[in-house]
Amino acid sequence: MLRLFYFLIGTFFLFIILPKWLLSDSNTKEQDELLKNIALAANKTEQFTGFEYSQKGYVKVYGARQLLSDDFIQEKISEMPFSRQAFSYSWVWDGVKNATTSALSVDRRHYFVNSYLVNYEPFKTSQPWVPYLTLVHRKKYQYDHVTYPGMQDVWQNSQQSFMNTRGDCEDHAIALADWLIAMGIDARVVLGEYKNGGHAWVVANHDGTNYLLEATDKRMKSLWRAFPLARYETDYHPKVMFNRDYLWVNESVLPTTSYSGEHWVLKSRFYKLSQKK
Q1: Mean pLDDT of 187-208
Q2: Residue 225 above 60 pLDDT?
């Protein structure tokens, strides 16, 4: 009987206690490595404080005959009262509705939304969940009207978003999507509504499955399967999505949680000023 008791105790330790201890130790090492990389990224950011990525560019609108420049956009925006400039706008160009979208930058100038993904990668990593965890540690949510008094909606590009430790949903989504794209992942910033309020989030395709990454969600996740499948997130209503190059508009007349298909119409392609086509 005593032998059976010791056998059960040993089995419990071997299969219950030991795996948990090893997992805990592994998580600690993993977290230490992550925090080390965050610190390194912060130091790297300080070195780039005076460096600015150029966001100027053009878009080629599919179905239009002429290129649309951000100079033209800025000229039209400048005609508005300043109180109306601090918003994102969808544009009609050469008869094409919802041809592209622009947003006000921290330099008080409108740029195409694609340009906010400036190919900024804070540090190299082979783990696709590390960008998310890094932003969870580093960036705090704060409304734009608090960060920029008198302005309702101001966008930070991906470099600015990583440097600034506070920002709203667009800023979080832009920093996360751009980093994932740099890793070779098909990630897009999505603009739409969440529970009847304007919002921005990230959709990433991993092994043929679309995951919804809520960049403002501060609950840490370290595996793809921990992120919700986009098709089940019915509180999210996507309207526009974009990456560094392309912008799509959801033209479905019915609510959808699908981020692919004919209802997503490719509207335009963005080119940096040096890439004019």
Answers
A1: 93
A2: no
Q: Are 56 and 274 in contact (CB under 8 A)?
A: no
Token duo for residue 47? 């070195």
For the record, the structure tokens of 260 come out as: 């692919």
So what's the pLDDT on residue 14? 36
Q: 141 pLDDT exceeds 80?
A: no
Q: How far apart are CA 157 and CA 134, in angstroms?
A: 17
Residue 225, both tokens: 């399967």
- What lies within 8 Å, CB to CB, of 38 at 6+ separation is 134, 137, 138
* β-strand partners of 102: 89, 112
For the chain, report the end-to-end CA distance as a whole number of angstroms.
Answer: 84
The whole-angstrom separation of Cα 172 and Cα 214 is 9
* Phi and psi at residue 233, to the nearest 5°: -90, 80
Q: What is the DSSP letter of 4?
A: H
pLDDT at 52 (0 to 100): 59
Phi-psi bin for 257: left (phi > 0), alpha (psi -120 to 50), beta?
alpha
Q: Write the DSSP symbol of residue 66.
A: S
The beta strand positions in the chain, using DSSP E, are 57-61, 68-69, 89-93, 96-104, 110-112, 140-141, 166-167, 186-194, 197-206, 209-213, 236-242, 246-250, 264-272
pTM over 0.90: no
The token pair at 242 is 């974009």
Helix (H, G, I), strand (E, B) or coil at 171: helix
What's the pLDDT tens digit per position in 78-97? 999 988 999 999 999 999 99
Mean pLDDT across the chain, nearest whole number?
82
Kindly indicate the confidence band of residue 237, based on its pLDDT and cuts at 50, 70 and 90: very high
